[in-house]
Design goal:
The complex is a heterodimer of chains A (178) and B (307). In chain A, a hairpin with an 8-residue loop joins strand 7 and strand 8. With 178 residues, chain A is an alpha/beta fold. Chain A is 26% helix and 28% strand. Chain A contains three helices and eight strands, in the order E-H-E-H-E-E-H-E-E-E-E. Chain B is α/β, with parallel strands linked by helices and 307 residues long. Chain B has eleven helices and nine strands. Chain B has a five-stranded parallel beta sheet, with helices on both faces. Classes of the chains: A alpha/beta (178), B alpha/beta (307). At the A-B interface, helix 3 of A face helix 1 and helix 11 of B.
Chain lengths: 178, 307
């Protein structure tokens, strides 16, 4: 087994999140008609981080951020045992611009399920995708992210591990090959 | 834990405490789903479910059907009263004919105890027991536990009194198993004639005085007098039963603490419970019905997930 390779350390992690926030502000201005939706279970950490950073930069407290669980929309729940998480969207997404947030974009299947799940809450005006890591060579579906923290070329057998200071020892992204 | 330890839901007796917790946690997610503007998820869109009701039912049948439709399953309904069962077809033949139409799961209510277990040994599909005679009614017990957990925060350590016709009640037996597995203390209360002979061997307290039972418990689950199952007279008159075991506002208000009132339905208003109690703030009878859909969605979803 090869040594795990660090893709983002905590310093670059912080820089990347800040850059993503400024890219969002470029398009969405003061976020008055835009909401953030993080995908459970791991996308919500990035979504919350981005929400906090945006509020800091824009000096406002009311940027809306929800979490969406997609277990019931997955096409593989019968292959893996999956436990549902909480969905908390306490705002209206009808006619809003939605930024969907996840940690790693891999096959695209999670995002496909996320789009389906989100439509149960209304018809948004516009949906964009933001991810921290884009594994661009392993897509199964025609799905691309508009905002990407870092693009990596990896093969299927490799594994990308994103750690968060909220739940792990610190912010870090590593690539593990078997 | 991410999967149930069992392939069918035949009774609470076969479930582990982990299974029950998994079902209740999953049901919580489904309760959020059924309160959305669009109450439907596509999880079971490739599954066909047959609801076989060999005995009358309103709540359970509607609740299962709604749960199946909210999960996007295809549903076929079968009621014994309008079928070839009347022409003498056996249970296995009836079910195998339905399965020949490519059905994946069977939800069955049957007047004979053990009918679901019997079926699970002879056919391929997954079976959900929706009540078999006076034996078990697992989804009712799960939704009762879910409702208690929702109202009181947890089931563990709580005192629950099951009051009424214990002898003919499948709800009582499933509730006893379920609540005990979740760490609650259970008491049964009713006339001696409506108490099964060896009930104490299940590790429950037995009480024949309604007031004492109510003073002891945190939750009172009032059961219906099942006149349709009573082949002989078990008590002199309904009026006398009501006087001794009927719950009314006067008794409820005279207790030293506020307790939660449950009833699995259908209610005989004015017999085991008066209208003002059934419709009071302390009653969670309608929450039980709402939770029933979420719990049944969880059961079907988890069983379908077991390959």
């Amino acid at each position: 087994m090869m040594k795990p390779r660090i893709i983002l350390d905590s310093k670059h992690f912080e820089i990347t999140v800040t850059r993503l926030c400024y890219q969002l502000i470029e398009v969405h201005n003061d976020f008055s008609n835009t909401v953030i939706i993080g995908l459970q279970p791991r996308g919500i950490y990035l979504a919350k981080r981005i929400q906090a950073k945006l509020q800091e930069i824009l000096k406002k407290k009311d940027i809306k951020c929800g979490s969406l669980d997609i277990t019931f929309y997955r096409d593989d729940f019968r292959k893996k045992g999956l436990v549902p998480n909480r969905t908390e969207i306490d705002f209206i997404i009808e006619e809003k611009n939605v930024v969907m947030v996840d940690d790693v974009l891999f096959t695209g299947r999670t995002i496909r399920a996320g789009l389906d799940a989100m439509l149960a809450f209304g018809r948004p005006n516009d949906v964009e995708l933001l991810v921290l890591i884009d594994r661009r060579l392993s897509r199964h579906l025609p799905i691309q992210a508009k905002y990407v923290g870092k693009t990596i070329d990896s093969i299927i057998s490799e594994k990308v591990v994103v750690e968060w200071k909220e739940t792990d020892k610190g912010d870090k992204v590593t690539l593990i090959s078997n | 834990m991410t999967a149930l330890s069992t392939k069918h839901l035949l009774g609470i007796k076969d479930l582990t405490p982990d299974d029950i917790h998994l079902i209740l946690d999953t049901a919580e997610s489904f309760k959020e789903v059924i309160n959305r503007p669009i109450k439907k998820v596509p999880s079971l869109r490739d599954i066909t479910i047959a609801n076989l009701f060999f005995e009358n039912s309103t709540r359970t049948k509607l609740s299962f059907e709604l749960a199946e439709k909210r999960l996007s399953a295809d549903v076929i309904n079968f009621a014994a009263s309008s079928s070839s069962v009347k022409k003498g077809e056996t249970l296995i033949d009836t079910v195998n004919n339905i399965l020949a139409m490519k059905v994946d799961m069977v939800v069955m209510r049957h007047p004979n105890p053990g009918a679901a277990v019997f079926l699970s040994k002879h056919i391929d599909a997954k079976i959900v027991n929706a009540g078999d005679g006076a034996h078990e009614h697992p989804t009712q017990a799960l939704l009762d536990a879910f409702s208690i957990r929702e109202k009181l925060g947890s089931v563990k350590g709580k005192k629950i009194a099951i009051i009424g016709d214990i002898l003919h009640s499948r709800v009582a037996l499933s509730n006893i198993f379920c609540l005990q597995k979740l760490g609650a203390e259970v008491m049964v209360c009713g006339p001696t004639t409506l108490m099964p002979k060896y009930i104490a061997s299940l590790g429950v307290r037995v009480e024949h005085n309604l007031r004492k039972a109510l003073e002891w418990c945190d939750v009172a689950n009032m059961l219906r007098i099942q006149l349709e199952r009573q082949d002989i007279k078990y008590f002199p008159s309904l009026r006398e039963y009501t006087m001794l075991f009927g719950l009314n506002k006067e008794i409820l208000d005279s207790l030293s603490k506020e307790i939660v009132i449950m009833h699995p339905g259908p209610i005989n208003r004015g017999v085991e419970i008066t209208s003002d109690v059934a419709d009071s703030e302390q009653s969670i009878i309608l929450e039980q019905v709402e939770n029933g859909v979420a719990v049944r969605m969880a059961v079907l979803f988890l069983l379908a997930g077991r390959g």
